[in-house]
Fold this protein.
Amino acid sequence: MNTPNKLTVLRLIMVPFYVFFILVPVPHHYLISAAIFGAAAYTDHLDGKLARKYNMITDFGKFADPLADKIMILAALACFIQVGITNAVILIIIVAREFMVTSIRLVASSQGKVVAANKWGKAKTVSQIVAVLLILFMQYILELHQLGLIALGAPQVLSFWFGVSADVLLWITAALTVISGVIYIVQNFEFIKNAK
């Protein structure tokens, strides 16, 4: 297994750790979760960069890298639902898109083709990563107030606006998710058309 693929596997291994810190309210848990999630997201950037630079692109990487991205994002969103940061609609939209894209990849694979992620899929992933990190940092600011480490003049107002900001960020990612999914279908419609 080459280095980019090892980084992809490492990203998967990191998922349960940031999930734990989102869900278990130990002191500074949102900051710890953000740090682990950020490190996992960086492995996504790094594995792709290394694979392209040193010509280490493999079929395993083409399948496992986007799969690891999906697991990383979906786990974070599921945790956000669990702790009351968002509702299930965003997650349902993203899961539906990912099932659709994975289905097209499987059909293409049955026809001897490997379909890699396109630039829209990458933009979608970046928007999701940024949204998750910003939401975790906003939650950490509120946690610092709850711990008595900072004083917020109007914590209820700030909490409300953080909630609105989280909704806006997640709906932007949902819109990009839908757009990238439609483009993915259009670009790869030949595989659907030729499916047996």
Observations:
- DSSP finds seven helices and no strands in the chain.
- The mean pLDDT is 89.
